[in-house]
């Protein structure tokens, strides 16, 4: 698609803006808006101030999605907490100013209070709010760089935000540009939404295939029997029902070899079991594992972090290590333990609300259905082939989604910086 440029440009005098359309004015945000920071009643969580009926926003409320508008909240305060925070009317533009997710804007659709990790833009003059939103969204990376110049956790103060330069077209043109971006990004978002649904369908198909195959086998003509276990259901009549500990050795030997690669939960990809290389340095001692051991994430087991080890190493933190016995094919065991049926029954046993963990004793006594070794291998080989095909389809879809997101980002950047001319007829 060919885009039109403006007839003439000028040097903005601001390095990060570069050349801008000749008729646009370069201004600081504080020239057309007051920037104020929120606050939090102390001590945090004190029921004297919290758990009331007044919305109270935190950084996480603004960073959970890519939407323009924020229409939900999860935290509340009471009237007693109002003196320690700030109350703003509906349709106020907000910006996160603290932590790794600073520089994220949102327009809040309801009256609310907000904490000191968020800034608000009030008393806007001669600036279209939606256009300012897109300008701020385009500046997220720049804000992160600015905030990272200090020490410790990155933070933006209201002075940095207020002194941010923006190139402003005349107000009627601002409205046209904001409408154009809304329209074009909505079209892109619809495509992303459809592709995301498609990827989710294939992910569900993959999980259904694993569930069906590890509990039913490959031969659909064999006689079945009732396992009398709710999460398993019927299984082939020749399969054996026994406890998890009858099939696996629970490894708990502390590792005393400091040269071994340390593996933590963040190294195991959720629901796929793939190994993820990170630069994280893990502290403390762990459990030594060898090739073909299975590493199972016991913290938040619903994440289904199940890794079939490809090397000798040191499992750190909330990981159980299981060694398949000689009559258990390791890859089949991984498919079994990563299946959603297995994960669901494990997750139902967890203890702890914020940091749910499964106990080793629960897993040890869990009944599982096992075919003979040669059938385990056949099932694993079949699932390797089928899941690889599905993964390739999902990867292709995700690549398309990534390209659309990049297109969206580039479009916003080029429009709000004047590289693309927008007219009322577009």
TrEMBL record:
Residues 21-188, 291-402 form the Type I restriction modification DNA specificity domain. Pfam families: Methylase_S. InterPro entries: Restrct_endonuc_typeI_TRD, Restrct_endonuc_typeI_TRD_sf, Type-I_RE_S_subunit. GO terms for biological process: DNA restriction-modification system. Keywords: DNA-binding, Restriction system. The methyltransferase is composed of M and S polypeptides. Belongs to the type-I restriction system S methylase family. It comes from Nostoc minutum NIES-26. SUPFAM superfamilies: DNA methylase specificity domain. This is Type I restriction modification DNA specificity domain-containing protein. GO terms for molecular function: DNA binding.
